[in-house]
User: Fold these one by one.
Assistant:
Number 1:
Amino acid sequence: MSNVPSDVKYASTHEWVREEDDGTVTVGISDHAQESLGDLVFVETPEIGRTVEAGEAVAVVESVKAASDVYAPVPGAIIDANSQLQDAPELVNTDPYGEGWIMRIRLDDPHALDELMDADDYEHLITEEDDG
Amino acid sequence: MSQEALIFDLGRTGRYARAQAPAERADLADIPAQFRRRQRAVMPEVSELQVVRHYTRLSQKNFSIDTNFYPLGSCTMKYNPRACNSLAMLPGLLDRHPHAPDSTGQGFMACMWELQEMLAEVTGMESVSLAPMAGAQGEFAGVAMIRAYHDARGDDARTEIIVPDAAHGTNPATAVMCGYQVREIPTDAEGDVDMQALREAVGPQTAGIMLTNPSTIGVFERRIQEIATVVHEAGGLLYYDGANLNAILGKARPGDMGFDVIHINLHKTFSTPHGGGGPGAGALGVGERLLAYMPIPQVGKTGERFHWRTDKEIPETIGRLSAFGGNAGVLLRAYVYARMLGRDGMIRVAEFATLNANYLMSRLRDEGFQVWLPQRRASHEFIVSLKPEAKELGVTAGDFAKRLLDYGYHAPTAYFPLLVPECLLIEPTETETRDDLDGFVQAMVAIRDEARQDRDFVKGAPYNMPVRRLDEVKAAKELDLKWQGEAD
């Protein structure tokens, strides 16, 4: 079973969002997402400074099986991207909620986080997908 | 089987087949000095016999349609009849110089003109160009024509191409290469395009839609005419990806479905060699709206004479796609194939391709494998999802694919389409016997039994191939395809 930590929120497109102390959020893809993709060989991180809508494709993760878009789970400005992933995309596999983070976003509106799922809802979603 | 050494490693400085080599050195006197090589070429120094043995051994490691069942979904790895090969290699065709004048090439051009006509007839399109050298180039040309059409009308607000998630994987790439944004729309629970999503997606920004029919989930898009109406009413055009044409050959025509432009992978449906780089042939067919933008060169006919149509005759052409009218040798093979089959034969191809796929699908379903969309009849291909096996036995579609090689079957397309988890996309084609199809079913059952007994054994496959399981991550990240010389 995938690891679904309860200190982050989730989007239905399998990104996680962690609220940081300074009001920004860190975004990555869930353990379930990295498990489904398999070993990553390439991560295209988002352009820093870009303003994005929720649901906009901003990054790409590519594994030996598939290439998949990563969507901005919340609207805002992208203020940082994990440059380590260029040489070490496998960090998303080994530590999806830690060193494998993908980007940081400054929120337009803190209430945007309310649209996201908590760990229980997300676990429910992936169990349903698994049985489907 | 042992690893074959690189041909450079077989060589020794100064070695050549001395006993058989000509006694006199070649005379270089008539080559001007400035064109002569100053440094020794870096070539493997091997004898003729070493070369023959090396390449014969390599060819024996090939896993090909000539040696094994090759059910690679959406690739139509059918048998290539030897007659096509021998007729395409008649000296009059083989020895013809591409720069020879039209007056001495009338026979070859007649073959190409007839091929254009037959392809137009079987697909329901107005005109066909054989210029594209591969499926990808055919797609590029088709979408470039859609762009030319909108540009000519001053309709420059059309920035999007709609691509259903069950379309062929190259379609979004083509749209992007032609400068469009891709808008993906989902498939409904029955395997057809989600009509509501389509209606929401179309608008004044829609340049067109790219569809594969039957789709890559192996079913026929039943509402294709409704889709055509929705897209046309929004001002967009319809692109047909011919990857799966084999299923409907002689049965249904993209032109009648409402498509404006199509490409046909002759190396799939029309049985020319492919895999490992082709060469392919991506013939392009267009409807009336796009006739003005036809790529060149194309064979034209005036009275009983054939000629090459160029930009003088098609001034709004999107341009020249190949120097000499496509991959001539491949096109000739397709021509012979089409002539051998005739109208009735083409219908038989579709019927037996579909029959074989449905037979194989029902046999695998009876053995307890999870068939995707079991309520639908398969086209010429179908999907098995190995998600239950992955979950219960810990053995994935990738593991099955590797182990199938040991049993003498090329792996089906794996992990595509992306919308079905742990999938194998299986296309047996019309040229396999029932015994071969039964053998494949037995292998799938045997692999599942092995997985129940010893999961790690299956995860370690293949065992009987020239190489064991490859490190796919390393292969993707550290491409090393070029011999760089000695390390010194």
Number 2:
Amino acid sequence: MGEKVTFAVAAIGALGFGTGVVFFRDAFRAAVSLIGTLLSVALLFIVLLAPFAAAVQVIVYAGAIVVMFLFVIAYLGERGEVTTPDRLDRWQVIGWLGVIGLGAFGAVAVLDSSSAPADAAPATTDVGTPASIGDAFLSDHLLAFEVTSLILLVAAVGAVILARSAVQGAGGR
Amino acid sequence: MATALAWIVLVVPLISGIVLAGWPGEPPHAVTRLLGIGSILISFALSVAVFIGLLGNAADDRSFTSSAFEWISIAGTDVDLSILVDPLSVMMMLIITGVGFLIHLYSAEYMEHDRDYRRFFASMNLFVFSMLLLVLAGNFFFLIVGWAFVGLASYLLIGFWYERPTAVAAAKKAFVINVIGDVGLVLAAFLILRELGTLDYGEAFAGASGLGANSGTVLAICLLLFVGAAAKSAQVPLHTWLPDAMEGPTPVSALIHAATMVTAGVYLIVRCHAFFDLSWLAGDIVAVVGAITLLMAATVALQQVDIKRVLAWSTVSQVGYMIMAVGLGAYASGMFMLMAHAFYKAALFLAAGVVIHALHDEQSLDRMGGLRKYLRVAYFGMGAGCLAIAGVPGFAGFFAKDDVLASALNGGAIGVFCWVVGILGAFLTALYMFRLLFRAFFGPEPAGGYQPAPHPSRWWMSVPVVVLGILSIVGGWLQLPFGWTEISDWLLPVTGEGPAILEPTHATEVVTIIVSVVMALGGIGLAWWLFGADPERRIRLAAIARGPRAVMDDAWRFDEAYDDVFVEPGREMADVMLTRVEPAGPQGIITGTVAFVRGAARLVRSSQSGMVRAYAFWMVLGIALAGIVAALIAAGGS
Amino acid sequence: MNVPIEAYLMLSLALLALGLVGVMRRRNPLMLLLSVELMLNAGNVSLIGFSRLWDDPSGQVFALVVMVVAAAEVVIGLGLVVAIFRSRTRLDVDEMSSMRG
């Protein structure tokens, strides 16, 4: 029962804050709203017995990434959304069609699934512990692990280069 | 021992040619002479040594093969880089290096003022090497290599003065026709390889009889070999390149287009006589082609005004005699004539070269006359050569030609036909050669005299002319009628004896000598009456027989016929291809492809708006479509 | 597992749709990136849900990988936004169309 309540709270929170992310005109508010979504999702992770993932979600996402967003928003300053007519207005129809199609697809797929061993899984499990995740990373998913580290390296180097060119473009050293 | 020396003979001109070719810049003339002439002298000396070495052996112990290394070994067929030293190849070696040395010596002065002195000697040495490779090769493979190299060297030397468009055109013509011959020779080698499984001379000739006398295979081999021989030796209908080849420097004409290269066909047939002995039809075809060539070329030579072209057509005619002889099976007579011809034709060309040099590149007989006062050496060389080629008793040409004709008379109906043609040819030969002699060296000087006076040659040019002049007298004494047959005896181990081999007999010799001497003297007499005694008579008689003479003047219009049959249709076809087929076909395919790709690209490009959100729309649409389809499938399935 | 997996998946789907709408509606590049984060989170919810369903750590492992990729993407994306828009007055992705074909 408690699980269902928690799920309901978290789901409503995620969707509500998510709506805020999408529809707030002000970028700063949207970013703060994203924090709410992320925390709600972290709550879901805990319900799903994935405490480590939840912790990472809070620390990396809510902590690091959103903070970076806020930095950039503050750096670029207040430059309200443009008011010129949207050249892609005609395409919005396609977008909505897409969303509807996707929704139909998802609904059909979800409602059609009958093989979920919903009650088979034990209430307590150790798949979410750091130990088991670390074990999985270094045994079954070593390649993914290495690729991940490589992606991080590339991202770091790329960020440095972008920053350099930005500094030079602004007349700095 | 003999083979080791022969290897050196072969390699020395190659080395000096490479050194000269690779020399940076233009070396001093002394260095070029030392390398270019010295190498040929070494080759000649060693050839003589080989010859003396073979003389010391018994007649049946004069054939040696030597293999440097195995070149190709596949499927049971071995091709060695090997040479064959036997009486035939030694005879050719002596002619090539001996006459070649004299002509190189002559070139030292003749080419003195040319800015490409080094290139000339490098090419000449390359030619001597190629020709030696041709005659020394121990199998068909290297025969073809030498054969092709000779064609290349000939091309380089005909086109030596490459600033002249005519020289370049002549070089191309010679090369193309020579390649036709190369193809024939290569096909013959393929056929031999297929039928006999070997390219080695010894094995091929030994196995030839296994193919069966007069079989189609032997006939095919012989005719393909003859295509090669006819192209190299300028026989009808592949003779048209030789007169044009006179665009090259005169020493080149003397060495390549008179003494050595054009006789390669004769050598080839003698070398491959094992095949020709087996097929009387092939032999007769060769002989008839030779006979036609000798008569046709002699008539053309009558009309030429360019001094070198007279000699060129005379060469075609004389080589026709040799081809006729070897076609009939008179191999020794053919080789004897080859040797004698090398002497007297080289003498004639070199004497003509002296005249041309003295008159500052004047080649027309119309602007010559009375030269004997100025150019004693050339007069001697030209006179000796003319007497020899006309067949005046005592000179080399007399013995050689009579040997050929006396042998031919024993050759059945075809032989008699050839004899008649040969006798007619002898008359014409005497006529056109003495026409040249009388018009150039006798009679009045051209109007206005010589400005400046012709200058006599120095010793570089004089010595070869004199030596070759003497050789055209004494060179024939190696083989005299009625029993003194040094050449035949020397070549006996190669040619062998058999029903297919023709030799003169006493009766035929007597008949031939009487008739041919009458013909030769008649020809000389007619030439004197027409051109020597009264120079005005030629002009008075100019109106006679204009039509036939025009045909002869145009060399029986072979070039025109080739133009009409091959060149023009080819050009028209190319024109149609270019204007009709090509734009629609290959070019159309290409432009069509380009237009299609460009159009498709324009279509696809419009989707690349550069707007990230538009891409997102497309992506969403795709996912949605996939989702709808999946939903429908799921709905239908459940 | 008292809440059925279908509920998680429907939530995931709803979040994804929200993100998509954001990507398509907003012209501010920062908002675009935020919406993408939303979509990535939707994916993560599904992954962790399946991990719970099958009692297998692989789902969590991939959720972590997705987070890392998201972090890298944000770093580069924000770097680009800063580099491009520091000199312009308006924040409009539609102006970033110099790669038009």
